[in-house]
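Review form for a predicted model. The reviewer records the input and the model, then writes brief findings.
Reviewer: anonymous (R2)
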Amino acid sequence: MEAKNLKVGDQVTQHFLILESSVNKAKNGKDYVSFDCRAEDGTMFTGCKIWDCDVAPEGVCLITGKMEEFNSNKQIVAKIVTVNTELSPDILQPQCPLPMDVEYLRNELAFHIGSIINDSLREFTKGFLGFWSTHTFPGGAECEPRFSRHPGGMRVHHAYRHGLLQHTVEVIQHAVSAGAIHKINTHERDLLIAGCAIHDIGKLESSAVVNGVYEYTAYGRIYGWSSNAHLYIGAQMLSVYCALQEAWMSQSEFAMLSNIMLSHHGPHGDVKPKSVVSQMVHLADMVSSNLNRMNCGLAGTEEDDIKRDIARESYIRIPDYEEIKDEDEPGVNEDYGAEDDSARAMFGTVSGLYDS
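Model under review:
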């Protein structure tokens, strides 16, 4: 059973990531442990207890106990806590509350980068993402591949495993659609895709997963714990990569990609978009982040109080035809989706006005 579905009285035997734990004294003088933890589905429990215990657990633990309630707060009262040193805390990163096909996202990213017409710009984009996914900034020391599993944000949007990959693909898709509608030229389209693909690369260095919790790194903190930190770090990574790999591109292309990285937060950043391409990346970035925050909030569990309440106060979901199943619903017949006679007649009347 997923942790989010556990009810008061249910028996619990699951792996949890211990977020905080401390040894305390009960009124009877005995030691007990209080701890906060997070399950693999992202559900958090606070104020959990281990009675008659004087050792505070850390990391990933297999917890056996019972779900109880105190002051309207569900909490686990554990009987057995076994530290599991074989499981990485990374597996208990928050998960996306909506369905996600990671393989599709990887293929979609590769497809769009492969569609860049200019050979040198296409190879640069592939090389840049590949290099910084497996090398740390600034010196280029090798590391485990990280781009596709990194979160896309700290808290506001795509703040879960594979979030950066998902956000990057969404930004490309939104931007490419806008570019087709507004008829940008081929060179602009190449720079648009390249810029979207690399725009958030700085997040690999501005934030990190520490015991399953997202924290700012030293690079992130040097810019004042700012959500704009990855803009500046990304621009630096662009310069360092070009120097380390002797990657060639024209001065104007380098300037455009630098502007995209530094300006994709639009009015919320220090640098403003200076081209149609930069503005499109900014708008696509904004659409992706805002819609993700809304959709994840609406799909959130009861533990996601802030995001859920903000989303549900501001937006509603419209049920699909299959969910309505109300014969009195105007314009929907038993086939759910076909117009009834009155709707067809109305459409015919309205369309006739435009055809005349």
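Findings: Strands lie at 11-25, 31-39, 44-51, 59-70, 73-83, 207-210, 213-216.
Further findings: The CA atoms of residues 32 and 51 lie 5 Å apart.
Recommendation: see findings above.
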